Amino acid sequence: MQSTPIRVLSAIPPMTQLNTPYPSTAYLTGFLRSRGVAAVQEDIALALVLELFSPNGLRAIRQTIDTLPPGKRSPLISGFVEQFDRYQATITPAIAFLQGRDPSIGHRICGRNFLPEGSRFESLDVYIDDEGGDPLAWAFGALGVQDRARHFATLYLNDLADVLREAVDSRFEFVRYAESLARSQPTFEPLAHALAATPTLVDETLKKLTISAVDRNQPTIVLLSVPFPGSVYAAFRMAQAIKAHDPSLMTVLGGGWVNTELRELKEARVFDYFDYVTLDDGERPILALLEYLDGKRPRLNLVRTYTRVDGQVRYFNNSEPDVPFAEVGTPTWDGLPLDRYLSLLDMLNPMHRLWSDGRWNKLTVAHGCYWKNAASAMSASTT
């Protein structure tokens, strides 16, 4: 079936985490390369945040705000506009600091005169030292300049995210992006309605980044890994952009959310965006799919794979054993910009910091869906 050599692009859609790559694409890319498949990977989630929170991104947000009627400008938006020049001047050094590329600026951030401070900084007012000392000493101690500065820089970034959410796209979150469209929805209708709506600045930026990744890597098949509900909307937007750009490109949906929520998939409209949906451990279904696309196996012998046939959703499962874990191979981070991830410090509780602070090489805990049984968010067909 495939007239050109197969080349696979695995992509992380927004949003997962900003401090470290989600490991699914690293595992799949390493595995596919070990089997002789040309495979590359991109973190579109990180790319989207770095594009939006940049001087050009802030200018685009400001331009969107300028189109709002005066009555729709909240105090939050007005505060951003009033301090726009300061935000423009500080966004690049703040991002560089959170990436660990310019630790020297931490002292200026801790001075509380460098970064503009919005409503997120009000959370600091609850800490009081009755003896007139440092109210945050309990969290950072006398020498915790870098941690303190990371917390302030994170509050600064959260202020900007609040502005973006209020002025540009009400669904925007650093992790739970448009999560309500995918969590516990009885039908596909809310997601379909959102995908048909006029694109926001966030949508247009995501589209630009997606097409750029496709043009740069020239894949024949794109794998989108969706681990969380907060990645679903963006994954469908990316697939929508890919299909509009090049309908011949194959798109495949998989990941933790798919494994738990789409086990009884009946909604044919999913396949307006994705050619295939795979379940559980990705290695065997992807290998079988690549062999099918290369004309080396019949469609009937696909493994744990949904597709649309004559307008109807069909499930193919040849019940082949999964690739043994010992043969999965070594994940690779080649292609992921490890020096550009952001070490955020959202909460002062040391345990809560583990989610967003620091660079982690994640170990495999859940490889596929170990329950293999969950309620389906898109199992019901709608008319």
Describe the 3D structure.
- The protein is α/β, with parallel strands linked by helices and 383 residues long.
- It folds into two domains: 7-45 and 179-321 and 352-356, 3-Layer(aba) Sandwich (Rossmann fold); 51-167, no CATH class.
- 38% of the residues lie in helices and 9% in strands.
- The chain is built from 14 helices and seven strands.
- The chain has a seven-stranded mixed β-sheet with strand order 2-1-3-4-5-6-7, sandwiched between helices.
- Strand 4, helix 12 (256-261) and strand 5 form a beta-alpha-beta unit.
- 41% of the residues are buried.
- Residues 369-383 have low confidence and may be disordered.
- Total number of strands: 7
Distance between the termini: 33 Å
CATH topology value of the largest domain: Rossmann fold
Estimate the global geometry from the Cα principal axes. Answer: globular
Helix content, binned percent: 25-40%
CATH superfamily of the largest domain: Cobalamin-binding domain
Structural class by helix and strand composition: alpha/beta
Radius of gyration: 22 Å
Quote the beta fraction. Answer: 5-15%
Give the helices and strands as they follow along the chain: EHEHHHHHHHHHEHEHEHEEH
Mean pLDDT: 86
Largest beta sheet, briefly? 7 strands, mixed
